[in-house]
């Protein structure tokens, strides 16, 4: 389940970007689209959703409601639009023309540009995805010349990585959710399959509070997902250093989850971190699971 | 009757050791106790005397077991939780006496004293044999101060000293002069990452193996965090390494308030759910030897890491 790191986070996108979003869960898709569309509203750009099926606009955008967006009002004002173009059997053929026209129309209506999100059903992608490839290829010049930025969504449960790789090559790379935290030495990002957080870099007394905050928020999400037994996964593959204070926080967080029937699962725990956890007894804290991987030999 | 017992057996002959230890082991097996024998060379003596009944005894080579005092203390702890009610853990523990530097010898004397605190209230029964023919005089004498009971010495009263007091005496002997170090690495609150970078580069220059590098990073980092927290917020890391050890010295300028540090900091395992105490415990476990002078007017903690290829501590590099 090696995930190619996203080139950009959604918050770093700017005009001209044409990025691919490969998502594992609906939560991941919605997390990225919420940021993308709300950033557009904040930036004076129109948001355009091209869904793969003919769904009522209010329903297609209903995931924005939970983030304080009044979808009906935004649709009525033309700040958000939903176009069922891609739900038609020939939708991909003139996608470049549609986006070109929509961008000009947004500018004509007084917006500073257009943010577009597309998604197609596999059935429309053509034999060996040929139609899809051709369509993506034609989008290049549109994004490079007009005030538009876009995300093409691909469900990774339907398109596998051998298909997404070449498709990503027709974009300016990939996009992922915004980092929860980023400083000189640490990046905290959300993961969606399994749901949790990934820590990359170093955690010490300067940024342990950011980890605590992220874990706290993630705990609330996990509880919302599963009333009985919140499970949080922490991906530590890219973690180079974590100090005792931060490991103590993980142990306490695990104990808290355990008290409510939940667990904190750690993967990618480096041998030197496992050694510290063994010496402190934190490897045996109830609720804390360390995924076995690699072998470790403790020195004499 | 399963209270903690810590006895020294000073013996002048193999026969005397064998008879006493064999009886000790035999009684333990008979009572259903867990019996552990850690010995450098005397296991065979015991095995001969006990024959097949020796089988349930857990045996360890003292050169592996008595490698670094803090780690040795930790090795005896798991037996606590394995213990059934009304059963003892009997230990014949023979620390390696020969080939230690003065520094190491002193830390092993301190270790014997700490056993009294670390296992107070446990069902451990330690029998510590000391062969007086080969033992340094200082060690043979210290045994009366680190063990509450002496076996087969009706004429000698044990003069067991409070471990904190005994430890303070060990500290007094400490100031081995260190080589002058190049410019130190200053640190302040929130700047521990700078120290970690410098130490990583230092360990790379020395060619330390990866695991040792992490040990160095982790222990110095925790010591620095402690210095920032309790020592006035800033200090300096110096690296006065010598022929045998990589040495990291963390000093601070002191908080000038009464230090809140507990007695015997880091010598006893903290509960996993404790709010503090894991840092110093880890520092002692991951380094080879530690000296600490914790003082409100400025603390100095020195961490020693035996250099790769500079001899096993028990194999002896006589240099102080």
UniProtKB/TrEMBL annotation, chain A:
InterPro entries reported in the protein's UniProt record: MEDS_domain, MlaB-like_STAS, STAS_dom, STAS_dom_sf
Annotated STAS domain residues: 197-281
PROSITE patterns: STAS
Protein name: MEDS domain-containing protein
Organism: Streptomyces guryensis
Lineage: Bacteria, Bacillati, Actinomycetota, Actinomycetes, Kitasatosporales
Automatic annotation (TrEMBL), chain B:
Keyword terms, alphabetized: Kinase, Serine/threonine-protein kinase, Transferase
Positions of the MEDS domain: 6-148
Gene Ontology molecular-function annotations: protein serine/threonine kinase activity
The Histidine kinase/HSP90-like ATPase domain, residue ranges: 189-304
Name of the protein described by the UniProt record: Sensor histidine kinase
Organism: Streptomyces guryensis
Lineage: Bacteria, Bacillati, Actinomycetota, Actinomycetes, Kitasatosporales
């Amino acid at each position: 389940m090696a995930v190619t790191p996203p080139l950009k986070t959604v918050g770093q996108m700017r005009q001209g970007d044409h990025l691919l979003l490969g998502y594992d869960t609906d939560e991941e898709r919605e997390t990225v689209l919420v940021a993308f569309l709300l950033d557009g509203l904040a930036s004076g750009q129109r948001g355009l959703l091209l869904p793969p099926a003919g769904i009522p606009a209010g329903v297609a955008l209903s995931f924005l409601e939970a983030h304080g967006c009044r979808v009906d009002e935004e649709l009525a004002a033309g700040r958000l639009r939903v176009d069922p173009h891609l739900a038609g059997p020939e939708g991909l053929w003139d996608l470049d023309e549609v986006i070109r026209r929509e961008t000009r129309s947004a500018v004509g209506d007084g917006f500073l540009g257009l943010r577009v999100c597309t998604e197609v059903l596999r059935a429309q992608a053509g034999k060996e995805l040929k139609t899809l490839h051709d369509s993506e290829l034609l989008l290049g010049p549109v994004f490079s010349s007009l005030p538009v930025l876009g995300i093409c969504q691909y469900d990774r449960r339907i398109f596998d990585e051998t298909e997404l790789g070449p498709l990503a090559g027709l974009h300016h790379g990939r996009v992922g959710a915004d980092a929860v935290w980023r400083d000189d030495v640490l990046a905290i990002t959300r993961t969606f399959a399994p749901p949790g957080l990934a820590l990359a870099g170093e955690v010490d007394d300067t940024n342990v509070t950011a980890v605590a905050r992220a874990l706290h928020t993630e705990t609330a999400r996990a509880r919302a997902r599963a009333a009985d037994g919140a499970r949080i996964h922490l991906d530590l593959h890219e973690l180079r250093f974590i100090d005792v204070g931060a490991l103590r926080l993980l142990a306490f967080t695990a104990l808290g989850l355990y008290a409510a029937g939940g667990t904190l699962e750690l993967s990618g725990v480096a041998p030197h971190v496992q050694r510290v956890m063994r010496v402190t007894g934190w490897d045996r804290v109830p609720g804390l699971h360390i995924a076995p991987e690699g072998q470790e030999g403790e020195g004499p | 009757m399963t209270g903690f017992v810590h006895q020294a057996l000073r013996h002048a002959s193999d026969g005397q050791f064998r008879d006493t230890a064999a009886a000790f082991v035999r009684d333990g097996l008979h009572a259903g106790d867990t019996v552990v024998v850690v010995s450098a060379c005397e296991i065979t003596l015991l095995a001969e005397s006990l024959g097949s009944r020796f089988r349930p005894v857990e045996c360890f080579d003292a050169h592996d077991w008595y490698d670094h005092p803090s780690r040795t203390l930790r090795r005896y702890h798991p037996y606590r939780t394995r213990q059934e009610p009304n059963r003892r853990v009997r230990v014949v523990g023979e620390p390696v006496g020969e080939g230690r530097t003065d520094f190491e010898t002193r830390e092993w004397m301190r270790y014997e004293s700490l056993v009294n605190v670390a296992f107070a209230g446990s069902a451990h029964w330690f029998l510590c044999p000391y062969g007086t023919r080969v033992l340094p005089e200082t060690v043979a004498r210290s045994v009366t101060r680190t063990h509450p009971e002496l076996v087969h010495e009706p004429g000698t009263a044990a003069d067991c000293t409070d471990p904190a007091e005994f430890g303070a005496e060990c500290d007094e002997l400490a100031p081995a002069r260190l080589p002058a170090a190049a410019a130190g690495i200053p640190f302040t609150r929130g700047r521990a990452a700078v120290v970690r970078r410098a130490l990583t580069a230092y360990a790379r220059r020395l060619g330390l193996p990866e695991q040792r590098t992490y040990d160095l990073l982790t222990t110095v980092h925790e010591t620095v965090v402690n210095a920032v927290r309790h020592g006035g917020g800033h200090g300096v890391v110096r690296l006065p390494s010598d022929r045998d050890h990589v040495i990291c010295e963390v000093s601070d300028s002191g908080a000038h308030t009464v230090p809140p540090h507990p007695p015997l900091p880091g010598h006893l395992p903290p509960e996993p759910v404790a709010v503090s105490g894991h840092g110093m415990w880890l520092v002692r476990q991951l380094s080879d030897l530690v000296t600490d002078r914790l003082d409100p007017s400025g603390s100095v903690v020195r961490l020693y890491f035996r250099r790769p290829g500079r001899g096993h501590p028990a194999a002896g590099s006589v240099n102080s």
